[in-house]
């Protein structure tokens, strides 16, 4: 994630194809967020297409660096990307504008869905449908877990595997509070896993 | 404490430690919302997670909105969602500052490296809860193997192979729902 001198030079020369406006930032982010299913990995390429290719508000390499920062920070990747891209394009107000535009569409959609859920979830036929979907989503989740575990095992490093196994046992067998477990893992990482091989 | 403030703080705690994408937020939200506060049942939680997968927007935000809305209506959904993204604003901007000042963010690299394998384990423990609920309608071990919901096992296996064929998430979940409706009606079993 090192920023090169070359990139820095380019940044200074960034020319906007389209004059920057908060209104445009809000509307384009809002629309991208409203119509993309599948979270950050779908959303970010669209944001890049809009802000880099169409508006010229960001430089390509810089956008990639910003996304990698957003990815490495805790929280929702799509929200993080909006925060940092918005900041780069329009300062603190820009970051709040982009964040709000990212959060509002799911906020509205899910609030509406939750009212329908409350009204229909106890209907026996709806219950059967939901139960079927629960089994489907369980299959998805288990697949995700297996893929992630395989990815960790393939790195052939002992420490991450110890952390993984220890965390699982602490959570499932000993039922220790997750926030406490995470605090311990963060401390282990801070002192023992700063080497780039653990990235 | 005021329920809105509690929602905000709970989801801020989740947002603060949630590393590694939407799935990583699920075990954390589960710990706060079900285990700690008892705001939802596991059943509702899995439904929320399922519906979040099928609607636009990041899974974490969708789940936060849904939980907030179930617990305290529209103000609740706003409080939970804002709480969830609140820590990110400061952390991301701080990382951005480090990036522009020093060109790298190795200061927190170690912490994140420690959290990544931990999150895999936590998603795994959530996966275990999902299986218990799907197959046995229970939230905790032990389970009675004789009381296994066979319809659920069949749908799980079908969904597993559908995934291998790269079926889209929405198609897969919707088909699972239809399969559930048909199989429960045909077998006369209750979900």
Based on helices, strands and strand pairing, what is the structural class of chain A?
mainly alpha
Distance between the termini of chain B: 37 Å
Shape annotation of chain B: globular
Radius of gyration of chain B: 19 Å
Low-confidence stretches of chain B: none
Shape annotation of chain A:
flat
Largest sheet of chain A: none
**Element pattern of chain B in H and E:** HHHHHHH
Account of the 3D structure:
The complex is a heterodimer of chains A (199) and B (191). Chain A is mostly helical and 199 residues long. Chain A is built from eight helices and no strands. Chain A folds into three domains: 114 residues, no CATH class; 25 residues; 45 residues. Helices cover 78% and strands 0% of the residues of chain A. In chain A, helix 3 runs antiparallel to helix 4 and helix 4 crosses helix 5. The model of chain A has no long low-confidence stretch (mean pLDDT 86). The chains are: A mainly alpha (199), B mainly alpha (191). The interface between A and B is large, with 97 and 104 residues.
């Amino acid at each position: 994630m090192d920023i090169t001198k070359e990139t820095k030079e380019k940044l200074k020369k960034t020319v906007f194809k389209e004059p920057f406006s908060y209104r445009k930032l809000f509307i384009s982010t809002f629309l991208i967020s409203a119509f993309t299913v599948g979270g950050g990995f779908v959303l970010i390429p669209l944001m890049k297409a809009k802000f880099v290719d169409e508006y010229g508000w960001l430089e390509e390499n810089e956008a990639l660096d910003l996304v990698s920062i957003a990815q490495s920070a805790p929280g929702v990747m799509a929200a993080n990307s909006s925060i940092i891209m918005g900041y780069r394009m329009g300062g603190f107000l820009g970051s709040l504008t982009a964040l709000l535009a990212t959060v509002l569409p799911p906020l509205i959609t899910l609030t509406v869905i939750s009212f329908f859920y409350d009204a229909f979830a106890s209907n026996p036929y709806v219950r059967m449908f939901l139960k079927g979907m629960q089994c489907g989503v369980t299959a998805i989740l288990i697949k995700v877990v297996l893929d992630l575990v395989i990815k960790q095992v393939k790195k052939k490093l002992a420490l991450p595997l110890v952390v993984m196994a220890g965390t699982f046992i602490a959570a499932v067998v000993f039922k220790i509070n997750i926030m406490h477990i995470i605090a311990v893992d963060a401390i282990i990482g801070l002192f023992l896993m700063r080497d780039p091989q653990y990235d | 404490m005021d329920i809105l403030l509690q929602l905000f703080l709970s989801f801020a705690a989740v947002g603060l430690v949630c590393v590694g994408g939407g799935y990583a937020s699920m075990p954390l939200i589960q710990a706060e919302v079900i285990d700690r506060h008892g705001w939802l049942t596991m059943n509702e939680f899995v439904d929320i997670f399922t519906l979040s997968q099928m609607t636009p927007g990041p899974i974490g935000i969708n789940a936060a909105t849904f939980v907030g809305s179930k617990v305290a209506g529209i103000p609740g959904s706003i409080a939970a969602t804002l709480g969830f993204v609140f820590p990110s604003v400061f952390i991301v901007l701080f990382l951005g500052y480090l990036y522009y000042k020093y060109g790298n963010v190795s200061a927190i690299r170690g912490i994140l490296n420690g959290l990544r394998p931990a999150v895999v384990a936590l998603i795994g423990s959530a996966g275990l809860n999902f299986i218990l609920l799907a197959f046995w309608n229970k939230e905790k071990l032990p389970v009675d193997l004789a009381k296994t919901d066979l319809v659920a096992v069949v749908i799980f296996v079908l969904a597993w192979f559908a995934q291998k064929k790269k079926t889209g998430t929405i198609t897969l979940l919707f088909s699972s729902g239809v399969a559930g409706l048909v199989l429960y009606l045909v077998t006369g079993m209750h979900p």
